[in-house]
Fold:
Amino acid sequence: MDKLVITGGTRLVGEVTISGAKNAAIAILPATLLINGVCTLENVPNISDVKIYCEILQTLGAKITWLSENELTVDTRDINCMQAPLDMTSKFRASYYLLGALLGRCKEAVVGIPGGCNLGARPIDQHIKAFEALGATVDVSQGKITAKCEKLKANSIYMDIVSVGATINAILASVLAEGTTIIDNAAKEPHIVDVANFLNTMGADIRGAGTDVIKVNGVESLHGNTTYSVVPDQIEAGTFMLAAVASKGDLIIRNCITKHLESITAKIIEIGGNVDANGDKLRVWCDQRPSKANIKTLPYPGFPTDLQPQMGVVLSIANGTSIINESIWESRFQYTGELNKMGAKITPNGKTAVFEGVEKLTGAPIYATDLRAGAALIIAGIIAEGTTEVYNLEHIDRGYENIEEKFRKIGANIQRIKEN
Ligand code: EPU
Structure:
């Protein structure tokens, strides 16, 4: 089992460059199925979720060519199958995008029930509701989801809850449908705008992405021969912003869209840190022990659930007692048990956790319980006194490109040890 060994007590200083967004890339890759041609994607994060998605697309007949570390072409001219391998698709959550994309392209899709991080119940009723509204029948049985239709016909879809995945899936299924689809109470995350921008570049007609009403005017076909660059990762940028604060460091964070980071910026300033936005870079620094704060996670533009664990590390060493209310994922406080092994005083209770700030954390062997928890625990190891060993790295590798190298360049003493 590989592990990261971190010798803590480091103040992070220097420059870090943010990669393309995981949650945009793993929606854009399946979106290429709607094109009958070749497209080039730039700023693709080189992470395991992207590699799995590429493998899945290849099993459907797509040709993927990596041009460099972060650039690839997808040729979807020979798609010959609408059933993605069940063992591969049930490995991770974002395989649900194959449903919308294959329905759009082939009028039929079969996908294993999506897996992914264990964050609690992860229903897909809103995805199904969208497909059915567009004329598909959906069957969930024997560990798989089958969606079929004669043809897709536009409709009005009102989302009962704000869902990133269901909003993107409704877009994917309606791009080639006949007529104008209205998606109401849509999610507004930056990666939704990015998927819409990608599809529009390929000839789709999607308006209003980034607001809560999205209008999709169905088109006959999408074209290839286009290059698209994936948006910078808002969550990776936020992770380094919070690492700067936790370590009382001083970081320049390059290749980010500062507008996407406003909720994090506001909280950092509230707890005594400093943020200076300049073009596509941010300087984040903190010269004092952060002060307590209360956080409630919300859909964008609220404070993102995907930065809740990283903020939890900051609040674990803050001056005073903080409360985090997690309103998206019921099991997102699993990391608090690991932080408590390092001397934190956190009491989770359902959707709320109370963080009684301690002066310092101390190193311990700890386990990444999910992707963002893993990033948070690395930050904890970097600021802790002594040595921390972080296990379950497969969670972290799903979503962060070269994470230990990026932390090493800004001063962290962190090594990956390969073990059988
Ligand atoms: N929900 C339903 N029914 C649905 C869909 C969602 O009840 O049909 C509920 C969920 O249970 C949850 C809430 O709605 O309580 C929001 O879920 P959403 O659908 O927005 O989440 P998702 O699309 O499954 C994406 C990201 C997550 C991120 C959430 C929230 C991807 C692949 N995943 O998940 O990212 O936490 O949005 O922003 O884009 C991560 O990157 O670590 C991660 C978990």
